[in-house]
């Protein structure tokens, strides 16, 4: 893989969910799901366990020693994979999801008003809001209509409900259009 190849993050939960949704009519073994998703058995088992505790998946245990359990989707809640804790309880959405949702609702905002709105449901620092907005501005999602000292933003690109993600390699990935829309390449590449 070359240094300039763009990589997209894998959403392992979503891959397992898609496999289950595509096979609603039958039970699947752990190894069948692992193979279809190209994931380790431990990764698949962990999510299946959460789905089972949350009431999304049923488990069929075969009689006999060494017979594998089989899993089937029982409660389909749509195309987005449920975010669940280990005990099957729904998890709060990530802060970036709350920021993105608020940006889509407000359409125009400054950093202080965005921070205040998001802090109603998710604890977030102004510096985290500034960094996220700065990257979305560079990627063309936001436009600064204020000045360098007091930034005000207008949302230019609303690509869907899933928040664009800041990746550790300084990429912005938009899952709505399945594209990396910004990549900062270090000078040594």
Report on the architecture of this protein.
- The two termini are 13 Å apart.
- With 189 residues, this protein is α+β, with helices and mostly antiparallel strands.
- It is 35% helix and 16% strand.
- It has helices spanning 12-22, 30-37, 41-53, 95-106, 111-119, 126-138, and strands spanning 28-29, 57-60, 70-73, 108-110, 142-144, 152-155, 165-166, 171-174, 179-183.
- A hairpin with a 4-residue loop joins strand 7 and strand 8.
- The longest helix is centred in the N-terminal third of the chain and has 13 residues, at 41-53.
- The mean pLDDT is 89.
- The radius of gyration is 20 Å and the shape is elongated.
Give the secondary structure arrangement, pairings included.
Layout: H1 12-22, E1 28-29, H2 30-37, H3 41-53, E2 57-60, E3 70-73, H4 95-106, E4 108-110, H5 111-119, H6 126-138, E5 142-144, E6 152-155, E7 165-166, E8 171-174, E9 179-183
Antiparallel strand pairs: 1-3, 2-3, 4-6, 5-6, 7-8, 8-9
Helix pairs in contact: 1-2, 2-3, 4-5, 5-6
Helix content: 25-40%
Secondary-structure element order, N to C? HEHHEEHEHHEEEEE
How many alpha or pi helices? 6
Mean of pLDDT = 89
Q: Which percent band covers the strand fraction?
A: 15-25%
Overall SS class = alpha+beta
Distance between the termini: 13 Å
Number of strands: 9
Net shape: elongated
Strand line-up across the major sheet:
1-3-2
Name the poorly predicted regions. none
**Main sheet specs:** 3 strands, antiparallel
- Radius of gyration, taken over Cα atoms and rounded to an integer in Å: 20 Å
